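Much of what follows relies on a compact textual record of a protein's fold. With that in mind, consider the following protein and its fold in token form.
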Amino acid sequence: MSQTVDRALSILPLLAEGPADLGKVAERLGVHKSTALRLLRTLHEHGMVYRQSDQRYRLGARLIALAQEAMENLDIRGIAHPHLVRLNEQCGHTVHLAVYEEDEVLYIDKVESRYPVRMYSRIGKPVAITVAAVAKLLLADLPEHERRALAEQLDYPMYTSRSTPNAPAFLRELDKVREQGWATDLGGHEESINCVAAPIRGADGRVVAAMSVSAPNVVVTADELLTLLPLVRRTADAISGEYSGRTPTKGTP
């Protein structure tokens, strides 16, 4: 029975590459056409595959609908939270999780620093979109025309001398973030606060959220905070793997 299930499931990634006829399916599975046909018929009955008029098979609408429903029901905050807590235990600093919704970047989770000096950020509060590290990651992943359109309509308040001054500078920063795969805010919003951030990606590789570690200068310098970047990226990768289903549920390394 397990071999039959394994063979049936092996058909799905094959058809994800494009429609295939019975012969191709049988060849890929290494089975007789009659065996492949039985598997395809069963999958067809459940809406997992669809037989076209040219007798080739493709993925069925039911499978696509189930995948969409599963994605909509995934709770990125619930998946990420244990990893954020673990990271906070390791480094001691404030950890944030943020998403991009309706032209705003919002904090959806926060684990407080163990140090007496704490940040005033709140869950549900929009971030300073032109300077925040998490915002840079989320916006850098947008298609180019969307990035440019958004950059042109934003205001650019000079919170500090290190704030992003205008749209061209913001777009250059987003290009840099997109290329390197991580982001920083080194005194751009508050002179005394530094932040490093990494993206959380879904199964399609797109950025679905961003997480960060922030700390004031009185606790660690910007250079000291940057040494945590590998740990932050490993945590983000672990969350990405669990969210996308690429890896089993387990602790952050």
Observations:
- Residues 248-253 have pLDDT under 50 and may be disordered.
- The beta strands are 49-51, 57-59, 94-101, 104-111, 183-186, 193-201, 207-216.
